[in-house]
Design brief:
By secondary structure, the protein is mostly beta strands. The protein is built from no helices and ten strands. The strands form three sheets. The chain has a four-stranded antiparallel β-sheet with strand order 2-3-4-8, with no helix packed on it. The protein is globular. The chain starts with a strand and ends with a strand. The model has no long low-confidence stretch (mean pLDDT 96). Bound molecules: FE2/S2 (inorganic) cluster.
């Protein structure tokens, strides 16, 4: 695992998300000022969850509307049946850091 700078803290407003072009891509979410990182690709198909609709600690996929828990990655509704990988996040000064697999 390695800590990578994902983006600046001020680049993601509360209730929004950003896609980080890592391999695999990661979505970083701001939930009430707390930052979380999950796999960006929906487990149902190939949609980017950073483009989804964030409601509290849930994100709804923009393609077929599966819902996931941003905090845990758990799948909350069909058509997705598998949860999302989550990644540790820390804030270092003005930077959001994500612990990515090597
Ligand atoms: S791609 Fe996300 S629900 Fe289908």
């Amino acid at each position: 695992m390695a800590w990578l700078r994902a983006c600046g803290r001020d680049e993601i407003d509360d209730g929004e998300a950003a896609r980080i072009e890592t391999d695999p891509p990661v979505a970083v979410f701001n939930v009430d000022g707390e930052f979380y990182a999950t796999a960006d690709t929906c487990t149902h198909d190939e949609s980017s969850l950073a483009d989804g609709y964030v409601d509290g600690d849930r994100v709804e996929c923009p393609w077929h509307f599966a819902k996931f828990c941003i905090r845990t990655g758990a799948v909350l509704s069909l058509p997705a049946t598998a949860g999302l990988t989550t990644y540790p996040v820390k804030v270092a000064g003005d930077d959001i850091m994500v612990d990515m697999p090597d």
